[in-house]
Here is the input.
Amino acid sequence: MVTKLKRFLIGRPMKSHELANEKLSKLKALAVLSSDALSSVAYGTEQILLVLITMGAVALWYSIPISFAVLGLLAILILSYRQTIYAYPMGGGAYIVAKDNLGTTVGLVAGGSLLVDYILTVAVSTSAATDAITSAFPVLHEHRVIIALLMILTVTILNLRGITESATILMYPVYLFVFAVFLLIIGGVYQWMTGNAHVQPPIYGAAVPGITLFLLLRAFSSGCSALTGVEAVSNAIPNFREPAPRNAARTLIMMGLILGVMFIGISLLAYAFGIAPKADETVVSQIAATVFGRGVIYYFIQAVTALILFLAANTAFAAFPLLAFMLAKDRFLPNMFMVRGDRLGFSNGIIFLSILSALLIIASQGDTENLIPLYAIGVFIPFTLSQAGMMKRWITKRPAGWFPSFVINTIGMLTTLTICLIFLITKFSQVWTIFLFLPVVIFAFKKISEHYRDLADQLRIDVTTEKPEKKGSVIVIPVAGITQVIRNTISYAQSLSDDIVAVYVGFDDEEIKKMEKKWAEWDPGVRLIVLRSRYRSIVRPLSKFIDTVEWKKAETDHVTVMIPQFITKRWWHNLLHNQTSLLLRAYLFARQDVKIATVPYRLKK
Amino acid sequence: MVTKLKRFLIGRPMKSHELANEKLSKLKALAVLSSDALSSVAYGTEQILLVLITMGAVALWYSIPISFAVLGLLAILILSYRQTIYAYPMGGGAYIVAKDNLGTTVGLVAGGSLLVDYILTVAVSTSAATDAITSAFPVLHEHRVIIALLMILTVTILNLRGITESATILMYPVYLFVFAVFLLIIGGVYQWMTGNAHVQPPIYGAAVPGITLFLLLRAFSSGCSALTGVEAVSNAIPNFREPAPRNAARTLIMMGLILGVMFIGISLLAYAFGIAPKADETVVSQIAATVFGRGVIYYFIQAVTALILFLAANTAFAAFPLLAFMLAKDRFLPNMFMVRGDRLGFSNGIIFLSILSALLIIASQGDTENLIPLYAIGVFIPFTLSQAGMMKRWITKRPAGWFPSFVINTIGMLTTLTICLIFLITKFSQVWTIFLFLPVVIFAFKKISEHYRDLADQLRIDVTTEKPEKKGSVIVIPVAGITQVIRNTISYAQSLSDDIVAVYVGFDDEEIKKMEKKWAEWDPGVRLIVLRSRYRSIVRPLSKFIDTVEWKKAETDHVTVMIPQFITKRWWHNLLHNQTSLLLRAYLFARQDVKIATVPYRLKK
Here is the structure.
């Protein structure tokens, strides 16, 4: 039943050699990896305007130079990550680059920051998409946690089905969104040129009394939230078809171009149509309404915008498992993140991300507004570290023509560092928790790594000298009565050892006498030892007795306790048996050098 | 840690022979077993008045004859149960009496009805006590589910501590309540005789237009809710000090007298002071206010009334585990209800009752009003069956002077049967679910009994002919690499058998070659078989291989799979290991005749 449901949801298991088919073409990779970055277009310009409007509508013209500054930063980031892709063709996320050049701890800061950030991405983007839906259908508002959770479930199942399959499905909404925004820009430019819009833009270059550099920087850093998600491509190089680095680099450039045009287009239109941010309507919605009126095209644009906000979560689902895999390979995360599932994806990473983001949604009751600045700084810290790592690399290796590359990374690093500082200063109350969770995550990484190192030390073997040695053995069989189960267990024990002891734990004299008599009558060729339990516990006297066995036969190194266990025909039959065997197992298992053999006895009725 | 907390809450474990000290004196037994019955005084009269008031205040005088009718029924029930106690000195609940005389199925109807009823008792009485508290402190109203759950937790812990200890604690509130009601009655009679109360009772015997027999019967059946809990003593005979039957009979008579005086006293005072039921104040509260004014005594009476409502739950906690024990002894409930816990109580029954009633509270959100009729009919069905059983017994055995006893039981049976029918007719919408859950419970009893019978058939052994037989044995060791763990496991296997196979499941050619080479180098004296897994599953190829082993060596009957398992030093280390061994165990365990030996390997760091 469970297997069938799994097959239905996830699909048939795939063979390992099918992995090559699971690689992404550029077109599909762009869809999967860019949804996070592209979705930022839906709110990037608005973030800038929201800061500027605090100085009055006259200040809105500043959005133009600020948007171009963001565009410049985007260009630097794209060029910088393009360099990283070629330098790290096996996947060069911030974790790899920082670790490789700046040491493990710095790498872990970048990696940990990104891991947490992906969880936030899923929570924030599904909440945003839920808000878009509940704005349209207010009756759904009270069910918004459920809606967000259903979205997470959908993306999870899609990703468990495998990367190509999810890419095939997700391609359509992503390209529809790109199409919609370009349609909006072209329509907007046409309206503006024909002068049909009848609006007056704010005067460019007008003096704004009281404007400060601090405010402008804040507007700039807010606008930079449009750049989150740019790093996804460089993390995901292993998912590309060969030649992977070249395909990844081209995809990155393509993404940069589309993102840049869309972002600056929206910013320019917002200025041209004199649009100011409103509490109850997004900037994109205002532009769309101005350009096309509130008709079919307007609703189409709104719908695909909601869809892309939801799909931003998918980028995290593509990137998180790969990053977790890399951390697990370096022994900073549990092994399980290295296991490929039935459909060749890193299912454990997918499920882990899904559960944590769902918990975050539940804990915040779907109200994730406060998490956005945290989410933004969580991206810019690894951006900065990654580029600092690249700087170090250029200086250290100095390949031919390294200097321009170094300059690009330096400018990029300084800009992203500045943005980090601006975030810290201007939004400290919302981002201070990063100082809490980053140390915790890194501490966990180090502890895990330590455990694996200790483990390897303990398990290491010298194949030339350390061979297995045969020793003596004694088998202990707890018996509750004389039944077919005990007969079966003794029969099994006799095939393994000649030193067998049956132990009966009795509660009162009468039943002990009865048992001894019946055992003598049966005479199975095994001596019976009777223990008396005054506290009605079977486990404790038995455990004490086993201690005695160990003490008596110092030469016998292996003590095996044989525990019969019923295999019932129906699950509920298990409730009808005292699970003494499980209890005994758990209790004895905590002891050194007692082996436990479970002897199944299958009930036929 | 857990053990310490348990010790603190429950107390030290007790030896089996201490059971004799756990028997109850009459004084304590009365406290533990009568709280349910006595608490009915708090609402019994009110239930009658609530029906009568529908015909106007003039009809209230009928409460007097009706109360005397209830008193008569109480006397019959007490006499009837007294007879049962002497007839069944080992405990004669409705289940035993009905089963013994009317057959197993009828017994199960009585037993099942009572079991469910005890769960309802706990839910209803804790809710009622919670309502009493939140009436006094309305700010607590939104936390009423939590309050009710805390009450259940308190009673559960008290009962887990053992029966004498809970009796010692519970004695005070029960006797305080008895004291409070007698104080009220004496004060009331004094006020009435001195004429200080200045109230006019309704005219006794006044004609009430439109009054019907149906309405009067309904009022009578509502008043009979005061009789719930009377059966507790006869169920609990084994808890009494020797001579148990005589002590139990005296306790029962004592309880009947106290209950009767209190009930008729309240009814008479209510009539004498012309009290009509009000929506927002109980009848007892009105009487207390009239007699003593709203001073200290009034609040004392209100407080102990709330307390006794809560303690009614305790009667169920005393009776349920005993009834479950009896049903389990007859194989109609799981064995676990027969196990005595650390403090010699039937802990599983206590915990089971606690969990189910807590679930009921949560499901109903603490609003259990609707359950009261169900709860009442659930008591009167076993009342009827128990007395019918006694009737049958008298007719069959015909001991000397049996006829008066037969008459008592017959009158009792007919009355309780009538009450059942009145409940069914007048409150069908609230009690119909009994036709749903009773068949379900009885079906479950029968299924459980069937399973135990099947089990006994399968396990039965002929001690003269069926002895254990020694057979061949082969050991299979899954290996993941060459480590100290595998060395330890092979060493153990060699001490048990000469026929050992190590199996390695590889995912690609390279790692398989490497493993084969290293194994040859190590040469542990065990042959290695390599399997290739195309689906990255370790369990499936291994399981298929074991099938082959079974097929190849038909003469070898015992196949043992040895699974090494880490015992980690810290619990969270377990998360860092793929739990392949657990998965393997679970998967292989579902197969016939594969034994699984778990070989612990204790990590030192």
